Amino acid sequence: MKKIVIILLVFQSFLLNAQEPPKMLKYNAKNAANIFYYQIDEIPKKIKIKSEDLKKITIKELRTYNSKVKNISFLNFQELRDLEDLVNTVGEQSRTNIELRRKLRKNIEMIILPIRDSVAKFEETINSSFKTVLSKKQYKKWIKYQKNVKRELLPKRPRNTSARPPTNRMNRRRGGQRRGNGF
User: Global pTM?
Assistant: First the structure.
């Protein structure tokens, strides 16, 4: 009887601790192509532009960038939406089927890479114009802001809710005592 209970407990612990594969994240083709728009009113405050002339120049540059990126987005809207639908529907199957995964990756590269390159070209032009206009400190803040915006486009990994939170090993070694208290 004891052996059966022990076997059941061990078996149950294996089932509870078994890891399931992470869920497929929803694919966003615009984010993959680095298509985003700058908040025109927010940027002069973020990079601390004081003079009105400089604010006008930066706002003008940002508006031209946003309009060019909107144009790219508009021209490629159907392709991006079709790619999103394809990846989101076939994504789970591509984990097991290597050939399907290769075709999907090739399709993504054919559509996303040219769009990303054209957006990068516009980013280079806005960065070069800002480099000539802004001070070194302001330009550094601009680059930092730009990197943060791009970082937000990257997909976030889902948190595993079934995992235990990390424990403090120091408390375990001391028997849970707090510093200096002794009790």
Answer: 0.70
